[in-house]
Amino acid sequence: MSSLRYQSGFGNDFATEALEGALPQGQNSPQVCPFGLYAEQLSGTAFTVPRAHNRRSWLYRILPTAAEQKPFKPYAQSQWHNQFGDTALSPDALRWSAPEIPEAPTNFVDGVITWAGNGSNRSQSGVAIHYYLANQSMTNQAFYNADAEMLFVAQQGSVRFVTELGLLEIEPQEIAVIPRGVRFRVELVNEPIRGYMLENFGALMRPPELGPIGSNGLANVRDFLSPVAWYEENTEAHTLVAKFDGRLWETPLNRSPFDVVAWHGNYAPYKYDLRLFNVIGSISYDHPDPSIFTVLTSPTATPGVANLDFVAFAPRILAMENTFRPPWFHRNIASEFMGLIHGDYDAKADGFVPGGASLHNCMTPHGPDKQSFDMATQQDTTQAQYLRDTMAFMFETPPSVLWPTAAALESAQLQDNYLSCWGGLERHFDASRR
User: Fold this and answer.
1) In 10 A of CB 426, how many CB atoms?
2) Residue 334 pLDDT exceeds 70
3) How far apart are CA 288 and CA 328, in angstroms?
4) 3-state secondary structure string across the chain
5) Among 54, 123, 205, 382, whose CB has the most other CB atoms within 10 angstroms?
6) Other CB atoms closer than 10 Å to residue 114's CB: what's the count?
7) Burial of residue 87, with CB atoms counted within 10 A of its CB: 0-12 exposed, 13-18 middle, 19 or more buried
8) pLDDT at residue 209 above 60?
9) Measured between alpha carbons, how far is 128 from 124 in angstroms, rounded to an integer?
10) Burial of 7 by CB count in 10 Å (0-12 exposed, 13-18 middle, 19+ buried)?
């Protein structure tokens, strides 16, 4: 397998070829393509959306995907679905420990467990949140998602994505996005893998507008990396698994689908290293809203309201004086699914562990536990606080409720004592003392 190489930028109109001269010059679909290739367009948006939001790529491949079509049949796998809101949901805050990686041979497709979500692929709004757990690579198997683009948050083990448009590899504290419809397989680099995965049914994710921040800060677009063209000529039998209308389907192929010799366009997989996030924060007083940590957003037609915000709490320096520095106690319209990738989280002393997760739904009160509260109220805020050993994230869906699945609610990892972390908070009120 060739060494990994990337192209820098977000939404760029890339042009890349694995064989010199494979890209047609001057036309997208000439009568005869170089080297006897076929031209195939992959569109991720409606043809007529504004130019700035149009996403499409032209692929030049050994055979078009239409050439291999055979009837699909249901795939015998039941842990991955988009069924949310079928049962009554309490407003309780929930927290889970990290799920164990299976002992039985399990690849990516079979190792996805749906954890929570809202909306649906049919409404083209909302999200589905999953864990992915695997101890072996996909072999002679490919996958594509017709329902949503997919965001991967690596937590344990490095993952190599072999995609139609090239090779992409992420390690813990990195993320990858595979666009809707792009075919790929998941390979393990050196050890079993565990991580978080989100399906976005809404508008394509993109970096947020910076507004008064200006032209720099948060996730810099040059740090988003897309693969260069790469292909394989493999005529062994393969299986293609598709997620379509909330279900998994499979069909046989007589070859590898990763035969794109060249491509150009702006609809492509990409990766980003969360450790490069340029954190913006307060240098005077008060704690800023978590929106200042947004890496990617899926906008809606309502200005300022997202279908999804992906937020990263990266290493940072807290310098605001006379301020309660951890996240404050709050209730808000957004539903928040949080995960911890690495280290500790400054608002929780115990129980919130790497690979674990918490869910605080719309208007459910939450905030720091007693130990974190006590430490923060006694801290010397004339001194800067360095948060180095940390990386947490949040899937935030304002204003839709996130429904945990039966698998999540019945899992052994569900912590039945989570609410007790706030039980020790004491009354400090004294009307005679300001």
Assistant:
1) 8
2) yes
3) 10
4) CCCCCEEECCCCCEEEECCCCCCCCCCCCCCCCHHHCEEEEEECCCCCCCHHHCCEEEEEECCCHHHHCCCCEECCCCCCCCCCCCCCCCCCCEEECCCCCCCCCCCCHHHEEEEEEEEECCCCEEEEEEEEEECCCCCCEEEEECCCEEEEEEEECCEEEEECCEEEEECCCEEEEECCCCCEEEEECCCCEEEEEEEECCCCCECCCCHHHCCCCECCHHHCEEECCCCCCCCCCEEEEEEECCEEEEEEECCCCCCEEEEEECCCCEEEEHHHCECCCCCCCCCCCHHHHEEEEEECCCCCCEEEEEEEECCEEECCCCCCCCCCCECCCCEEEEEEEEECECCECCCCCCCCEEEECCCCCECCCHHHHHHHHCCCCCCCEEECCEEEEEEEECCCCCEECHHHHCCCCECCCHHHHHCCCCCCCCCCCC
5) 205
6) 23
7) exposed
8) yes
9) 12
10) middle
Tell me how crowded residue 330 is: count the other CB atoms within 10 A of its CB: 15
Q: Which residue among 53, 238, 287, 360 is the active-site one?
A: 287
- Give the bridge partners for 196, in sequence order: 131, 153
Indicate the pLDDT class of residue 3, thresholds 50, 70 and 90. Answer: low
Q: What is the pTM of this model?
A: 0.96
Residue 399 φ/ψ region, left for φ over 0, alpha for ψ in the -120 to 50 degree band, beta for the rest: alpha
287 is catalytic: yes
Mean pLDDT confidence for 151-180: 98
Of 383, 365, 340, the C-alpha closest to 421 is 365
Q: Give residue 4's pLDDT.
A: 87
Could you give the CA distance from residue 255 to residue 317 in angstroms, rounded to a whole number?
Answer: 52
Work out the average pLDDT over 153-179: 98
pLDDT of residue 1 exceeding 50, the answer is: no
Amino acid at 201: F
pLDDT at 2: 47
| Closest to 306 in 3D by CA, of 321, 317, 296, 316 | 296
Preceding omega of 252 cis (within 30 degrees of 0): no
